[in-house]
Structure formats: structure tokens, C-alpha cells
Design a protein that fits this description.
- This protein is of the alpha+beta class.
- Among the domains are: about 50 residues; about 110 residues, Elongation Factor Tu (Ef-tu), domain 3, CATH 2.40.30.170; about 55 residues, no CATH class; about 80 residues.
- Strands 1, 16, 17, 18, 21, 22 and 23 form a seven-stranded mixed beta sheet that branches. A six-stranded antiparallel barrel has the order 2-11-14-13-12-15.
- A hairpin with a 5-residue loop joins strand 22 and strand 23.
- Helix 1 runs antiparallel to helix 5 and helix 2 packs antiparallel against helix 3.
- The longest helix is centred in the first third of the chain and has 38 residues.
- The protein is rod-shaped.
């Protein structure tokens, strides 16, 4: 028995030392470091949300036309004897200027004949007045108290006076026709076109040409009901001193250069177009060939212009880039530090090519993502990139998490235990 114990005891000691050594080595063995997983994030472009005032605008298009335009026509007939050198296509004319004269010889003769008729009628009336006076004296001498009006020559006197009035009317008519041999410009403006020339015989009412006033031009801008509401314009709007119309910025390319003119809305049309369901808003530009011109370039009739109508101003709103708006009321916000995406529902006021204007849902300074993202969700890994003013791109790398202190403490405790066991 003692011999068996003597054999087993060394073996047990050796086995115990082996197990203990193995335990000690296992605890003293450094724990393998966990390799950090490579972070996969989608690169997206973003712009910072800013604060500002919202100037609501409405865009429209229309053709420039003069507010006053007429066809020049004579009130008498005859052969044209004179044409003003300014009465040509594109010519400038002034109010009261003679544009055309018709030969006046026939009308001058008519005035002479009418004057002769007046003189004859005056002579007849003078004779009748004298004869009526003689008849009155004869009646008084005879003592006739019931003499008839004919005996007093009253009808003859009335006829003579009527004849004189008719003769004077004929004279006035002849003088008026003589005056009308000259056609005058009723207002200052420009000549659109001229249809006649010297020597041509014209009839009463025949077109001599077209002229228009250059003091004001107007543009008819068709808007729908939503756009009218955005501008705050009623259907029966008419601008006044107390309630001026919205400002309008007109643009058109003239001579290869984009020109700008500033006008204002003055009224709305009387009715809604039954086919388009739109209403025309009339905007005017004062003095288009003078103060209203853009560096000498007038907003001439016939131009097709783009118009931006200014509506009301809403102060202190959040402005995000238009490309960041998803649908009607969602904006993607990127957290540059964490590298995650947040899908926000916003209270959208209005959007245009310049931005999306929001009351709530986002904060100033946050990054609004403009890049397209498919199947976006909250917490999605992204890397925010921002395009700088000089054209360079700034990339915001997410901040890495610091090692867990508790894990270090646990490792230190294991090492201490292992050393104690070994001892």
C-alpha cells in the first residue's frame, strides 16, 4: 500500500502542477484585441440650414403691348399732299404734331362759298327786319289792332333768321373740313407702321398707319387661383395710392444681353378665362423708353418677357436647399459627427428653385442632405460632404468611439487573479 502511495503521490503532484500551470498561463496570456470593423457609410452632399426671410414670388410670362394704340385715319377724303418725316415705321412723334395733310384747295373753296352764303343770308335778314318795321308802322297808322302775323311779316322774319343760321352752320362745317385736311398726333409716342405716302388718294376712315403712346406699356400675365392666393390678390384688384400693386421684375434677352425692367401690378382682368381657368394680371412699366429703360434698352411692345411678381414677405423662417426636400414634407438631415442620417417631417411653408422654406422640424446649422438616397432610414450610416465657396469639398469624418473603460478594468482584474493563483 505504501508502495502504491509512493508511486501515485508524485504523479498527482505532477498533474496538479500541470493543471495549475495551465490555469496560470491561460490567465497571464494577453487577451486578443478585437479588430475594429471597417465602418461602411454612404457619401452624401449636404448644405447647412440657415435662417432668413421668405419673399414669396410668382413667375409668369407675357407679351409687352402699349396701353394706348390707335389706327390713324382721316375724317375727310382727298389726295395726300404732305407726310411728316417722323411719320415712318419706328418714328418718334409728339402730341399735336401734323402727321399728314390732304390737299386743301377744294375745302378752301367750300369755305369761300359758305361765307358767301352767310353774307347773302345776313342781307336777306336785314331787308326782312326793315320790311317788318315798315309793316308795323303801317298797321299803327291805320289803327288796326287785330292785324295778322303775316301782315306784320313775322313768318318772313323768322325764315330769314333761320336761313342765316343754316348759312353759318354750313360755314362752320366747311371750316371744320378744312381743318381736318391736317391729321394730328393725339399723343406722344412712336409709329408702329405707315400705310400711305404722298400723292395717294385716301377716303374717309381709311387707315393711314398705326401709332402707340410710349408713356406706359403693359403686360398681361395669366395666373391660376393658387398663384393669386400666394400673392394675396383678389379677383377685382385695382392698384391705388393706399394699396399699391406688387412689384414685378421683367426680364428678356435683347441683343444677346439679358435686360431687366421694374414695373408693378395695376389691376386684374374682369373675368376668369373659361378655357384655361386662369385670370390675367395686368402689370405696367412707366416710361419704357426713358427712365424705365435698362441702360437705354427699352421694354418695347412685342417683346416676350418673363415676369417675377413679388408677393408678401414672411420673416425668420428656416431655409434648406430645394434638393433636400423629399416629397411634400420630409427632409433628410445628416449628423456629421456621428455619421448617421435622420429623416425629419417638417412644416413646409413654400418651396421654389432657391430653397425649401420651413417653420419647424429642422434646426439652423444642421446639414440638409441634397444627394439622392434610396431606401433611407433613421440611423443609416453616411459621410457628410460639403461643397465650399471656392469649389473644394470638405468631408466630415465621423468621430470614433473611445474604448470602453469597463472592459479595461475587467481585463486588469483577470490579470490580478491569475497572478494570485500562480503564487
Amino acid at each position: 500500500m505504501a508502495r502504491v502511495i509512493a508511486i501515485i503521490a508524485p504523479l498527482a503532484i505532477i498533474a496538479g502542477l500541470g493543471v495549475g500551470g495551465t490555469f496560470v498561463l491561460q490567465n497571464l496570456k494577453p487577451k486578443p484585441e478585437k479588430a475594429e470593423e471597417a465602418r461602411v457609410g454612404l457619401n452624401v452632399f449636404a448644405e447647412k440650414v440657415r435662417r432668413g426671410d421668405l419673399q414669396i414670388t410668382v413667375e409668369a410670362q407675357g407679351e409687352v403691348r402699349p396701353r394706348r394704340e390707335i389706327v390713324v385715319a382721316p375724317q375727310i377724303s382727298g389726295r395726300i399732299a404732305y407726310v411728316s418725316p417722323d411719320f415712318i415705321d419706328g418714328g418718334f412723334i409728339k402730341q399735336g404734331q401734323v402727321l399728314i395733310r390732304v390737299e386743301a384747295a377744294d375745302y378752301e373753296l367750300a369755305v369761300v362759298r359758305a361765307r358767301s352764303g352767310v353774307a347773302s343770308a345776313e342781307q336777306t335778314l336785314t331787308r326782312e327786319i326793315a320790311e317788318a318795321e315798315l309793316a308795323r308802322q303801317d298797321i299803327e297808322d291805320l289803327g288796326l289792332a287785330d292785324a295778322s302775323p303775316l301782315a306784320r311779316r313775322e313768318p318772313q322774319l323768322a325764315q330769314a333768321r333761320a336761313a342765316l343760321d343754316a348759312a353759318k352752320a354750313q360755314l362752320k362745317d366747311a371750316e371744320l373740313a378744312l381743318e381736318r385736311t391736317a391729321v394730328y398726333a393725339p399723343f406722344s409716342g412712336r409709329v408702329w407702321e405707315r400705310d400711305v405716302d404722298i400723292g395717294q388718294v385716301v377716303a374717309t376712315g381709311q387707315s393711314l398707319g398705326r401709332i402707340f403712346a410710349n408713356d406706359v406699356v403693359e403686360v398681361s400675365l395669366p395666373l391660376d387661383d393658387e398663384e393669386m392666393g400666394r400673392l394675396g390678390l383678389p379677383l377685382a384688384f385695382a392698384a391705388s395710392t393706399n394699396e399699391p400693386g406688387p412689384k414685378v421684375d421683367f426680364t428678356a434677352v435683347v441683343g444677346g444681353v439679358e435686360r431687366h425692367w421694374t414695373g408693378e401690378v395695376v389691376r386684374t382682368a374682369a373675368a376668369v378665362n373659361s378655357q384655361t381657368r386662369q385670370i390675367n394680371v395686368i402689370a405696367e412699366l412707366q416710361d419704357p423708353y426713358g427712365r424705365g429703360a435698362d441702360n437705354g434698352a427699352p421694354m418695347a411692345p412685342g417683346l416676350f418677357v418673363n415676369a417675377v411678381i413679388e408677393g408678401k414677405t414672411i420673416p425668420d423662417v428656416l431655409i434648406a436647399p430645394r434638393a433636400s426636400l423629399r416629397g411634400d414634407d420630409r427632409i433628410f438631415i445628416g449628423d456629421a459627427e456621428k455619421g448617421t442620417l435622420s429623416v425629419r417631417t417638417v412644416d413646409l411653408i413654400y418651396s421654389d428653385p432657391h430653397g425649401a422654406y420651413v417653420r419647424t422640424g429642422i434646426d439652423e446649422g444642421e446639414f440638409a442632405v441634397t444627394s439622392p438616397i434610396q431606401a433611407a432610414f433613421d440611423g443609416m450610416n453616411i459621410t457628410v460632404m460639403e461643397r465650399q465657396a471656392d469649389g473644394t469639398i470638405k468631408t466630415y469624418e465621423p468621430v470614433k468611439d473611445t474604448p470602453d473603460e469597463e472592459e479595461h478594468e475587467e481585463t486588469a482584474m483577470r490579470l490580478t487573479s491569475a497572478k494570485g493563483a500562480a503564487e
